[in-house]
Design goal:
The complex is a heterodimer. Chain A is an alpha+beta fold. Chain A is built from 16 helices and 23 strands. In chain A, a hairpin with a 2-residue loop joins strand 2 and strand 3. In chain B, helix 1 crosses helix 8, helix 6 packs antiparallel against helix 7 and helix 7 runs antiparallel to helix 8. The chains are: A alpha+beta, B alpha+beta.
Amino acid sequence: MSKHSVQNKAASSKAVRKSANRKGAKRLNHYSAWKYLVLVVTVILLAVSAIPTWYGDKPAIQIQYDQTPPTVEQTAQLLRSHDIEASKITTTDNQSVMVFDSENDQSVARKVLAESLSKSDQITFSYVSIAPDWMQKVGFEPIKLGLDLRGGVQFLLSVDVDQAFTEKRDSMIAEVQQYVREQKLRGVVVKPSGSNGIQIQANNPERRASVVNYVKKSYPSWQVKRSDNVSKVTPAPEEVQQFTTLTLQQNLKIMRDRIEELGITEGLVQRQGEHNIRIELPGVQDPAQAKQVIGATASLAFHEAKSPSDARTSRDFVVNDENGNPVRLNKKPVITGEHIVDARASRDEMGRGQVNISLDHAGGKIMSDFSAKHIGKPMATVYREYQANAKGESERHDKVISVATIQSQLGTQFRITGSGSIEESQQLALLLRAGSLTAPVSIVEERTIGASLGAENITNGFAALALGMGLTLTFMALWYRRLGWVANVALVSNMLCLLGLIALVPGAVLTLPGIAGLVLTVGMAVDTNVLIFERIKDKMAEGRSFAQSIDLGFDSALSTIMDANITTMITAVVLYSMGNGPIQGFALTLGLGLLTSMFTGIFASRAIINLIWGQDARRGVRV
Amino acid sequence: MKDLMKKNIRKIRYVTSFVSIALMVISVAFMAVRGINLGLDFTGGLVTEVQLNSDVTNHQIRDQLSDISGNLLTVTKGGEDGRWILRYPTTSHVESSQIEQQLHQLSPQVNVISNSVVGAQVGQDLVDQGGLAMLVCMLCILGYLCFRFEWRLASGSLLALLHDVVLVLGFFAATQMEFNLTVFAAILAIIGYSLNDSIIIADRIRELLVSKPNVSIEENNDNAIIATFSRTMVTSGTTLITVGALWLLGGEALAAFATAMFIGILSGTWSSISIGTVLPEWLKLESKHYLPVPVDNAP
């Protein structure tokens, strides 16, 4: 026994020497002042950013009036006459903001207010923070809540890219067949092969070569493969990839525009996976209306535009362009959007934006006839959308998106120049493709979560968090006594930092599984401290002083802590990249929780321990 | 208690290992025989949760809805009085508005609390995607483990991980609880947690192998487990407490998640002590595998 303790002493004095050598003149268990500054500033900053979440947010309506808005009293009167009490109404210049206690009040108020508005007034729905104004001014916002906590509607749309591509291929076949007829290449058969390929079959090699050359020239991004007397034309993989991306972008843009028109400012539209689009509309309680808007059909047409000098006839109709200027058009379109196969933006020789349009065979023929007769005359592109209005009736919206002068006779492929910058051309190309309705969109998933269920989920989730945290704090305080309190301070600051961080990270959304992630973080965050404390206990048992044990305990636990956290981080990253709403929320809180728990568990608790027991030379202290 | 444990730790490890293997076999059998009851997220279909007057019964709902759906409907009671969960498979082509209309004839007050319609293809995609995510996760962790530990030691942690996942899946197969997307998230979280436990013991084993090369592997393993035992208990304890709180108060939406986590944490603790340390012994892990100095100690 005595021999044993002597050995221990020798070991400990060796360790002291070693650590003194390693750290040179540095004091044991000492953090310099700037580390404390960083720690305190970070914790306070994150804690403050968590405060607005405590206040939460409320459903609101914002109205942008064209003329002088009604006074606060008038609005309140109007709402009160329908038994709604707005909790706050503010009016500035032309804008009026009303805050309500519940989504129900908001949706009733919306109907009431919509009737009282003139056409040029704009009404939008959102959530506003009810934290003190100064916090919002500094940029601290409450944590964004996911649909499962807020209530709302979620759609998953599937964009049928394959169908669109097949149509594009079919129009190509029609064109090649036309070429075969024009060149009188008898015996050449052009037919579809597979879902997106073309097969050119001919016994005469010269004739086949002629057709193949034509295809190569007209469609450079397609690949031709020869075998015996058959040539197979297939799109290059990049071509398919690009087509898919463009089709998706087009649909994303259309959906974003439509949702904006619904007045929902917090709607989320994003691509999910290869060809799906996820739409989340927080606060919307009636999926039917949203469905009508999302499912609205759009089309596009080219019309003959009349110059002001032309005589007015009964066949004219007037449509406003984007700047609100009226454009007089011939009612009968030259061709409609279903003939457009593809539209892409590019640069012309001068570096200006232009849009290349491909028509199908029939469309090309009509366009060719029309343009031959109208060289030098303007032609307008009109975007048309059929949408259900508030009363459920179908309404037509027309908009002129460009007017261009016909320079020469046009065929199946032509371009519109003078559409401005390359960005504007891209926008136009997007709309042109939109009008062509190449890719059918269908709703493959629809979820509605009632606002009451959302509120219930929040209550349940946070009740579980409070209970779990309370029990953990009690346990730690009893089990590790003094050091336990340090762990508890670290745990509480961990929670504050984590909530603050979620509020700060752009795009971070708290979901119900996310709250579960918070609860789990509480359980696992103490692990960091437990590992350290157990090591400290071990070192104390070996006969070292408290201060030495602290130093060695933190050092030896570090690699274990890193190993444990990195493996969990791997699962969090994999989960996050799966990219599905609620699960992403879980992965997010789990991942961010690991970061904050390492920060508070290692750094903050060390800082506290250094201050209190950093120079404690006692041995045999019970921890 | 601790002395008793110290004396018998070898026996405890071997006995628990055999129990673990038996449990794994039983779990696999359950999975094979009963299969896992995949939820709407994975199968597709329609689920509506409604609040009706509290005097409406299960049979009334069934009879009322039989016109539009035949007998495809499943009705389950919700958490509160008058709350019902209605499920349809993807093949039924029922619209939620139809259901609401029909139910109005039963109860003057019909409140649709939540409603989900998922296409069959979406569900299938999610199954594929989920399987892929799990595979990627395992591979990433495998890569990390091989980098950090000698393969014999790493294989113990991996077997422990597999054990935990199989046990949780086996439990879901046995009870036919619904396996939804949040349970899937729980499984991945369990993978992380289980590794956490095994790694901490493996770290100790490595440390002992390096510092005491002359002691047998069995004894080193015993010592590593005893040295980390109080940490294992405290962390498992606090995590179980918080997950228990989630189970108790988290409501229906998180019940399955909390159940999966609870079992996963129990099994994770168990397996890290049992098969997690026994497998490296069977694979003849020796201290020479860690000599000369392991990579991470190099400058």
